[in-house]
Amino acid sequence: MLSQGSGRTKHITLIDPDKQSPEIAAKRALVAVECGTSAIFVGGSTDTGSNIVDATCVAIQEALELAMFASSQHPDADEDQWNVPVILFPGGAHAMSSHADGILFMMLMNSTNRKFLIEEQLQGAPYIAKTGLQTIPTGYIVCAPGGAVGEVGQADLISPDDTELISAYCQTAEMYGFSTVYLEAGSGASTPVSLQLIKTAKSAMNCTLIVGGGIRTPEQMIAAAKAGADYIVTGTITEEFEDLQLLKERLNSLISVL
Ligand code: 1GP
């Protein structure tokens, strides 16, 4: 579902179901897909209930299906453009939906609290097994400044120049068999994950590398891509625009540089 495939860095849009109604979330997701985003992550906040997560996944899936159907009626349109996965990015075992295409099954590797290392996973696994949600085994590593997720997740933050430590975390992730590593600076972070950490992570392992948190400009997108990110996640930007046309312009300016 997420792979290093073409070698070109791709963009992922994060939608936090807590930040808008499911209808608005679906409209925002459509704009993002139109701009070329490759997947929609649904999640983020730690206390969002499953009902809101589920309603948001349903609304996004329905909107994508409708757009795909509309495209199929036009000989010049590319209906495959709308075929993007909706993937859960859960704050915990409570934030699940069977209407997603998959789930980042994460270990917050640098948490000091066993809740985020194994307990939430133990609670979520039976539901995932029952619903058959496709799992993406992911090592989630929170880097400074870390923001809310660093605090709530009680992460021992990785400092921007600690290449030795990030390298060991990435090697560990690969040895555990994780397919993916997500370097997170925190939603709305004042500074994104350092380029040094991205470069080191990329060269330390063969896992798919996701980078997110505080990325807001085309220059930051280009730098993270050059440093080795396979996927770049942006979330906050999508929530800043009520006007969908303005959102489209902003997202286009970011995604088109990849
Ligand atoms: C947060 O990495 C994501 O989990 C996205 O961060 O909201 O800062 O874009 P932003």
Summarize this structure as a short list of keywords or feature phrases:
alpha/beta, eight-stranded parallel barrel, 258 residues, TIM Barrel, 8 strands, 43% helix, globular, 9 helices, binds SN-glycerol-1-phosphate
CATH-defined superfamily: FMN-linked oxidoreductases
Q: How does the helix and strand content classify structurally?
A: alpha/beta
What is the name of the CATH class? Alpha Beta
- Strand % is 15-25%
Plain-language structure description:
This protein is of the alpha/beta class. It has one domain (about 10-255): TIM Barrel. It contains nine helices and eight strands. It has an eight-stranded parallel beta barrel, surrounded by six helices. Helix 1 packs across helix 2 (about 50-70). The chain is globular, with a radius of gyration of 17 Å. The structure holds SN-glycerol-1-phosphate. SN-glycerol-1-phosphate binds near residues 188, 189 and 214.
